[in-house]
Amino acid sequence: MELECLPEGMQYLTSLRTLVLSFCTELVSLPRSLKFLTKLEHLEINGCDKINLEMEAEGERNKYLQLSLRTFSLCQLDALTDLPRLLLQGSSSTLQQLRIIWCKNLSVLPAWLLNLTSLHKLEIVGCRKLSALPEGIGRLPNLRVLASRRCPQLSKRYRENGGEDWHKIAHIQKVVITDED
Predict the structure, then answer these.
(1) Domains identified in the chain and CATH numbers
(2) Prediction pTM value
(3) pLDDT-based confidence at residue 132 (cuts at 50, 70, 90)
(4) Coil, helix or strand for 146?
(5) How many Å is the Cα radius of gyration of the chain?
(6) Phi-psi group of 17: left, alpha or beta (phi > 0 → left; psi -120 to 50 → alpha; rest → beta)
């Protein structure tokens, strides 16, 4: 039997700091109770083919969703076409590392990504349809590491020698742009 949903009673896991969901191929959504996990620091979602990460907004309450994620990894999510806004913006002042790995249908990073003011590291691997970083990515005040591997459109656009938009990221402390692993 495949797991289709996580239990709604997750709000009682008040000390939970790490949640890893790997290859739950029938999982379609995260529980609404996730918003109560205010101590959750590390969330990794890997190979959950059917998952929809857009949490339903419950009136104005979710508008101010407050999470404490420090690292968020999205790996091998074929259905992902957009980043989960409520999850990420709910951690805008705490999120330090965002990893987007082998999300083959992700084609754009939204402008609101610039609200992640604590982001230190952005790692993007194997997102072949991704053609650009958000305008103003260089203005993220704490971004120290930007890594893009196996993203041919990003590699062409942001490469150090001859990339049309290299100047937009050149001041970031460590930039790794390559078509290799």
Answers:
(1) 11-55+63-178 (3.80.10.10)
(2) 0.91
(3) very high
(4) strand
(5) 17
(6) alpha
